[in-house]
Amino acid sequence: MSETSLLDRDRETATLHRALEAAVAGRGGVVLLEGPAGIGKTALIDAVGPLAREHDALVLGARASELDRGFAFGVVLQLLEQTLDSLSADAREQLFAGAAGRAIAVFEHAASGDADPEYGVLSGLAWLVANLAEERPLVLRVDDLHWADVASVRFLEFLGRRVDELPVLVVGSMRPNEPDAPAAVLTELAAGPAAQTLLPGALGEHAIGAILGRELGGEPAPAFVTAARVATGGNPLLVTVLGRESAASGLRGLEAEAQQLTEIGSRGVARIVERRLRTLGPDAVTVARATAVAGERAPVDDVVALSGLAPDAAHRAVDALVAAAMLAPGGRAFVHPLVRSAVVASTPRGELMRLHRDCATRLRERGARQTEVASHWLAAQPSGSADAVADLYAAARIAAAEGATETAVELLARALEEPPPAADRPRVLAELGELELRAQRPHGAERLHEALAAGLDGEDAVRARAALAFVLVHNDPQAAFTLAEQARAQTADPALRLRLEAFVAEALIFVDAFAGQRDAWLEAAAAAVDPSPVMLAHVAVQASMAGAPPRQTLELARRATAGGALVDDVGQGGSTWNLLTHALRFAEDAEACGRLLTDGENEIRRRGLQIASLFVNQSWGYWHRDFGSVATGAARSRLGLDAVRALDLDVTTPALAAITAENLLLLDRAQEAAEIVDGPLGAAEGTFVEPFVRSARGLVRAHLRRGVDAEEDFRHVIAAGDARGWRAPFATRGRLRLAELLAMRGERDEALELADHDVAVARAAGTPGALGAALRVRARALGGDAIEQLQEAVETLAGSPLRMERAWALHDLGALLRRSGKRSDARAALRPALDLATRAESTLLSRLVRAELEAAGGRPRRELLSGAEALTPSERRTAELAAEGLSNREIAEALWVTRKTVEHHLGHAYGKLGINSRSGLADALGLTAAAG
């Protein structure tokens, strides 16, 4: 690098130095250099290298080009592949251990194996970088990001949101408003929490004079420098080009020569390059064009062959281009992307497309990667080449398997233009349509319909119908249902059949528009001679919510989960297994419910499926509300809620908001609960989820003395449940909650009627927890003369795992005994109530019980200001996983955080819990065997 490269760049270099020093200290970041071509971005990126090496940092670099846009993860491969290839087999295996193994597909050009390949590969690459950075700080430099493939930029954005706790610095350069740039992802990268953008400005006259002096061999006159500033706008590259052209024209930088700079500067870089090429002769023009097409990573032999010149002539032309400062030393790359762009712009379009076709053919013949070959077919003239279609199709499948959906769409769209042979057209159309749907492009469904109309058959037709069904379910449920049923009947793939069956069942269950078909399907499933796991699971769910005896639900669940097929489906978007956990909860089997949740979560963790993990967080929230710790439940569901909001998953948000609000209310955080759930129903309206969201919202509103609004919610819950045949008290808790609200207002007759309904259903079913809860509510409806009723509720709940229900019943009994003047008996009921409330970590109930105990003459123990209650949601979840025996790496991978974050959370948790090692975590957290 010349000493003039960083003139007038003190601010930028100081920022880069600070960012590097922070990264070396473990506080990584992203620095983006944005500006027009020639402003000096590359020089600034290059300046990071020497300083980074002084800190013993590993510096990895990549430079994107226009050819990279169709090469999925091409820039990532430039960054990492050479380093990985240099490692021993053992070292490579260690780097790809754990979650990083999901990135292996990028380097072996194979399917990732993940149901969510994009997220799986991105998280795998992030862990790979984190593993690399464990040995020494890491600097990733990427020049010309505006030309990078979308998948690579998406990875850098993904990494950028997690880099602040890694010894990793990402430095990139880009031009603003560049046509065809991945603008949306670049904007997200620049907006990341650890990102900062530098905008190098125009050079001042002192710097311009220094550059001109270097090129002219002497100090230029001030008037000459001023004219140069006006002609170039202070752009460093343009100043350099102007200086060289001035020297070539015989100028010496005199004041009298200043006027001539206007004419030279007006030519622009493209015209200057074109003129200089002509002076070097036709062979230089031919080689320059071949180099521009082949790309700077192409071997010189490829450029020679592409030029069509004799080897000696081609090599002489390369030497001439290097001597003319058009090619960099070595002859493989242009000195600046603007020079390449000028060469491309001066090449006739037909010749340019021919060169790309010839380059693709040569690469194909020497066995180059199909992704690399396809990048040239993208720029070649469509000509009906079967080779082009084959390469584009293969590259698209690789890109899709790696999660680079946008790139795959571009490749298949180009294959369609070639066009493919008539027999292959339906298949290409179908795969393009599926990918366009995944990328939320507007023509995906249209392509799939066209493929089916063109004769698509076999499993390809099945997948097309399935893809259409998955996308149409919200806009045209009936069409979606019909397509899914057709695909399910036709497929020979057991895994796809199970997924389609789950989709059909979930569509019927979740969407109210299918009410009639839902009942018929459930009836048929219940009567099936050889029912599938999906059928058994949904029949179990409906049975539990209708008030069936627990033994019936548990037997159906046992048969549904035999063989593990339901849990294996966690990554396919199927939530049937997760829905079944609610059936087990309604059957009041805490152990079986926790076991199924744990099995599903282990599979999700093994496969790195973030979206699927959100369902588990919701279900653990309910499990802990009923059987465990409401603080842990709030922590789990809140983590899930924050994640779905960050991912903008509208459909999942209301369900997580509902249970998060219920647990927050039990933690005596009513206002926070209201902020989460007290709003429009959104995507929950008209679905299976709506009654649960309304029930939670009504509960919070009732607590905040908004009885009219709460009553409206509860009555809607009851009506929706009745329409679905949900009679079990705990299905939605609508009757129980409305009865409590009415009893509080003195409307005892209706309150008793509602409570009596649930008492009768629970007695018939034999669910002690639901019966005890209904008896407690009935006692509230009765008013003052209800001690025997509450004693029955307490006795009924004595053997139930529903910890909070037992605590509430004891609280109500103790309060009523105190008001009846039986203070000693009251204390006897309230002390175990406080113990249960404390173990359940319900701040609300603990506060209420303490107040009653004090009123009854008792001395409740003081509240803890530390311990498990003091843990944040993230600290609690980290500590729970550590208590399960997971290593720091495994915890980090499970929670999608860095190991440093895990260490930080564990350190805080140890301090709050008063322990100094993992061995004490389970006891300190009060964990049971199934508590997730």
UniProtKB/TrEMBL annotation:
Gene3D superfamilies to which the protein is assigned, alphabetical? P-loop containing nucleotide triphosphate hydrolases, Tetratricopeptide repeat domain, Winged helix-like DNA-binding domain superfamily/Winged helix DNA-binding domain
A GO cellular component annotated for this chain's UniProt record is: cytoplasm
Write down a Pfam family by its short name: GerE
Q: Does the keyword Ribonucleoprotein apply?
A: no
Which spans of this chain does the record mark as coiled coil?
Answer: none
Instruction: Kindly give the InterPro entries that the UniProt entry links to this protein.
Output: AAA_16 (IPR041664), P-loop_NTPase (IPR027417), Sig_transdc_resp-reg_C-effctor (IPR016032), TPR-like_helical_dom_sf (IPR011990), Tscrpt_reg_LuxR_C (IPR000792), WH-like_DNA-bd_sf (IPR036388)
Transmembrane segment boundaries: none
Q: What GO terms describe the biological role, i.e. biological process, of this protein?
A: regulation of DNA-templated transcription
Mind listing the UniProt keywords for this protein, alphabetically?
ATP-binding, Nucleotide-binding
Domain of life, source organism? Bacteria
- Write down the CDD domains for this protein, in alphabetical order: LuxR_C_like
Q: Which SMART domains match?
A: HTH_LUXR (SM00421)
Q: Which GO terms describe its molecular function?
A: adenylate cyclase activity; ATP binding; DNA binding
Where's the HTH luxR-type domain?
Answer: 864-929
Keyword Nucleotide-binding on this protein?
yes
The name under which this protein is listed is: Transcriptional regulator, LuxR family
